[in-house]
Specification:
nine-stranded mixed beta sheet; alpha/beta; pyruvate-formate lyase- activating enzyme
């Protein structure tokens, strides 16, 4: 199975409850960023550039838990910044799991071996390691040698300790799809439980800091051409990107962005309108939902959305699509069992 039964059951029950209540907009995943600081400065990362003047800011443990309760999403992605350098990350994860939420602890892997003893394996916890290619490609993107080897050492240690481990890979214009296939083959042999692939988002903050970085990012047509090229190479791997989202990336169908289903809480507040774009920060989750003109977002409405195909907006849309069409629901069920 691609996801633990506890996660599948929690998400199914949650969706059914919301549907019966007639709610149209509700969160699926909380993107919780307890800090902005990071121990890397990757080429395509907008976070370290957008929040360069706030790098010392953090959320307290109580603020993090209040965000979890306020939002109510069944899944919490603890990201950043680099969450493993957040003081008390072990207690934060333990307390969120204690609230019966499913946690994806996102990390570049540099501190993973050090932090593992303070974490506890659980069906509600997945360690999500970011790797953008095999050693040469990944270390070039993160702009430091040795990062790939340390991340792999962390993955090996986590698997030995009984943790569920997945990886997240960002696809850029320069990404060689054969390198990605080689990466997933290598990680499969390490026992990694699943792989998320997503095209990069073209952050304005990256462009402003380094105009040459524009060459990293793809248009919508570029993305679909690259993913169609990758399709025969990647079909044998346990991708955690849903078949509906992948069909969207290949150009086989269209989805309307559901970025509101993955709200972001960081040290400045609830980030709006979405994980990738910043127009304002709100003190309360409900204020974010009610103050954002959601109909004005998306391709054809907001130029910042024109070439975005990133999973944080469109994977929730795939979940909602499957909830509406029997054929998609069957497809998702078969995929989950695969």
């Amino acid at each position: 199975m691609r996801f633990p039964l506890s996660l599948t059951g929690s998400m199914t029950g949650y969706l059914l409850k919301k549907r019966l209540a007639g709610e149209k907009r509700f969160p699926l995943v909380l993107m919780l960023e307890p800090l902005f600081a990071c121990n890397l400065r990757c080429s395509g990362c907008g976070r370290v550039r957008e929040y360069a003047d706030s790098v010392e800011k953090t959320l307290s443990l109580d603020e993090c838990l209040t965000a979890v309760d306020e939002c109510g999403a069944p899944v919490v992605s603890v990201c950043g910044g680099e969450p493993l350098i957040y003081p008390g990350i072990e207690e934060l994860v333990r307390r969120i799991v204690g609230r019966r939420r499913h946690v994806y602890l996102c990390t570049n892997g540099l501190q993973l071996r050090k932090k593992l003893p303070g974490l506890r394996p659980s069906s509600r916890l997945a360690i999500n390691v970011h790797l953008d290619g095999l050693e040469a490609a990944h270390d070039r993107i993160v702009e430091r040698s040795g990062v790939f080897q340390e991340a792999v050492a962390g993955i090996r240690a986590a698997k030995r300790a009984g943790f569920r481990v997945c990886t997240n890979t960002t696809v850029y214009r320069e990404t060689d799809v054969h390198d990605i296939a080689g990466l997933l083959d290598y990680l499969t042999r390490l026992g990694v439980d699943g792989f998320m692939l997503s095209p990069a988002y073209s952050y304005e903050a990256v462009h402003q800091a380094d105009p040459a970085a524009r060459g990293l990012f793809m248009t919508r047509d570029d993305v679909r051409a690259k993913f169609r090229e990758a399709r025969p190479l990647l079909s044998r791997f346990k991708l955690t990107a849903s078949p509906i989202y992948l069909d969207f990336l290949y150009g086989g169908r269209e989805l309307c962005c559901a970025a509101w289903a993955m709200p972001t809480r960081n040290p400045r507040g609830w980030k709006g309108p979405c994980y990738l774009m910043t127009d304002a920060h709100y003190p309360r989750y409900r204020e974010l939902v009610e103050s954002t003109a959601w109909e004005g977002l998306g391709p054809g409405n907001d130029p910042r959305c024109e070439h975005c195909l990133v999973h944080c907006g469109f994977e929730p849309a795939a979940v909602f699509a499957a909830n509406r069409r029997l054929r998609d629901l069957v497809s998702m069920a078969v995929w989950q069992l695969g």
